[in-house]
Amino acid sequence: MAGRREESSAESRRRLLEAATELVAEVGPRGTSVQAVAERAGISRGSIAWHFGSKDGLIVEVVQHTFETAVQEYRKRIADAGEMTLEVLIEAHLAVVAGTCGRVFATVLPEVMLAPGPIRDAYVAGYDNSRRFWIDAVGRITADVPDMPDPATLADVLFGSAIGVNVMHRLDESVDPATGLGALHTIFDLAMRGAKKK
Fold this sequence. Notes:
The protein is built from 9 helices and no strands. By secondary structure, it is mainly alpha-helical.
């Protein structure tokens, strides 16, 4: 009996998290209400407090889950490609931002920029983990290339540009992330070739 109850509880939690993620992607944390999450999940409002403690607790889980999903997608696409190149990293990033993750990042970021609290803390922790992933990836890509900036600086420029293109796309749909990141790839390629010729 306890096993079924635990299964049901895990399923309720999963449905609430999924519904909240969809709503945050659509309207942001501020526009996401406990009532709307409960209705979308088909579960009572009280379940949110039971599973997450509060609306903020639920949004923190959404942010953490979204960053974890993004890094898993990066890893999967890189593993599928069989090698680490900037092109593979950019394609993985495009896949991430084209889906729910990209919409969650774009709606949560403006709300956490100046608002201290647990949601901002979760966003900063997720961002930091993603940034470390990019630093490692860029370090592997540029390992044999002389005279390149250090991987952390280069990763900050690349990752920051990739984030910026996603935000710009959310503000103006005529901004094409693939084109913007393709240009970034071209610039990086030229820099790598120039460094190799030295």
